[in-house]
Amino acid sequence: MAVKQQEQHPVIHQSVPVELNGRLLEPNRRIPLNLEWVEEIRVNTSAVERRASTIDTRRSVKKEWQAAWLLRAIACMDLTTLSGDDSAERVKRLCAKARYPLQRHIVEKLGIEELNLTTGAVCVYHAFVETAVKALEGTDIPVAAVSTGFPAGLSPLAERVQEIRRSVEAGAHEIDIVITRAHVFNGEWQALYDEVAAFKDACGAAHMKAILGTGDLLTLRNVARASVVAMMAGADFIKTSTGKEATNATIPVSLVMVRAIRDYAERTGMSVGFKPAGGIKTAKQALQWMYVMKDELGRPWLEPSLFRFGASSMLADIERQLEHYITGRYSAAYRHPIA
Ligand SMILES: O=C[C@H](O)COP(=O)(O)O
Asked: What is the CATH number of domain 24-331?
């Protein structure tokens, strides 16, 4: 049973030119803080919520097309473990799953052996960066570290910066930083910009995802303002949540963030990636987020270079749905352990 690949003939890791409205974009780099851009932001909350509630009705993919979208969701997934009881053994199992995210019989039945499908990255605490790097040797799978006093981000700034440096030295290719949420609800835009810029400098060549902790930011306007400040400070990605806030990734918050990415790209000619994270557990949710990306930003934002899910348990449900697609039956969830 061959899967119809999304679009016509995509290859999961193929790079497509990053274009928006026909304009070729460059990767983001820091620009000076423009407070006018921050202050002029307005968000029509009820319009955003209305739009969010119709995501499923505007677009739907079925059968082999849905299978292809789910494979892409795997390729765009930061397979994550961020628990107090994490251990080297758990991280090794997670890395094995990142290398081979689907059971062999599913891969064969789908006819996708040549894709060599892997997850987009593995995301762990700093303490497990070396273990993950070693476990992923011989692959192109990057290791992402949550640094900067994750999840609260309230340790002294120098320690947070130092933690990034240590994660990069340990081999992390990507760093997920957390911002000081109080800078946002106190309107301290310069302080937020300086903090994110300091983190970006400490990352060096590693890619930086800025976690806004949107569940703590009180309003969608604050989410939009924090997004644009993080982008001006040089973030490569903006990310919704740590997975530890009371409210994690939601579609309304994501709409606001991807529209901020679009406005920023139109103004600057530069692209920034998006990572929804926290509480995303099902294949159905994965499709909803991918509809948002396709509708609001277009095809380049369905590549791992510009789109990642942060998820610790979604892969199990995707694997189960793909097995249902090829066998017509649902298997028990325990047959799809994540790690
Ligand atoms: O960055 C990733 C999140 O911490 C994952 O959250 P989750 O455990 O709710 O999937």
From this structure: 3.20.20.70
